[in-house]
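G.,

No rush on this.
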Amino acid sequence: MVGGPYRLFWAEFRNGGFRRVIYVKAPMKGNNFTLNKQAILDGKVQLIYGCPNCLMVAYKPVDGYVKGKNLTPDKRADQTKWLLEAKIILQAVAGSVQRDTITVKQYFDPNFVFN
């Protein structure tokens, strides 16, 4: 593991054979953070999706927000619990006006251990 000023949060959504994974590269300055539309456009939020049996429209994040709060700020980084709330607006890559929205409100526990 390599330490640094960011933490990567991810959430996976499955429905039948359809799968979406959203990744959030969050700055770790203090006990909370907010990513706005510009941060989303700058690539701090990524979306991976797939459905091997579907004809799908490709989407990209174009707007929204992500807010995170450390619920256990007195603990070490590998023992903290975070609450993330996000609303990500997606737009079809092919220039269409077709849009979709992903909303997330989820607790995250660390997936690493300091030795």
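When you get to it, here's the other one too:
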Amino acid sequence: MSKPFSSPRTALAVAAVACLALAGCTQSPAKHDDRLTKAAGIARVTIVCSKDLWNETKPDGRNPSSETVTVKATVSAISTGPRADRGLVEVSMTGTNLVAYLKELDANAHASKWNSTPENAAASRRVYDAIAPAIDRIKAASSPDDPEPEIVIDDTIPEKV
């Protein structure tokens, strides 16, 4: 009867597979999977943030620790009102695109200790930490005229109630 991992070659192969499996892991926050499920059921959501923050965190398909992520979003600069001169944009997307965005944010913000820290980890963590509780608070619409949820990420603007 042979012993498992009896040859150095077999042991090395098993170790390599284990490392590859760990390399794609993240340390996702509690309730992450529940948020993904809830986000999938949202028709549309708008995220208001600086243009630079969006550009830093939008999925570009280059994250080696996650599957290729495509997010379709409409981005428009805010050109009127009190937010006009702050460099903010409105990023509108469907719930299924929000799911893809959250997966990308999670991979970048909560990388496993076995992975290197992505350059945009701090920005991704900030966006994830703003979106997560907003998704948790979303309630079913009371009428068809209810506006889509809006998540504002600007620490100088008081949070909407």
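The helical segments are 8-23, 32-40, 51-57, 95-109, 121-137. Residues 11-24 have pLDDT under 50 and may be disordered.

Enjoy the weekend,
O.
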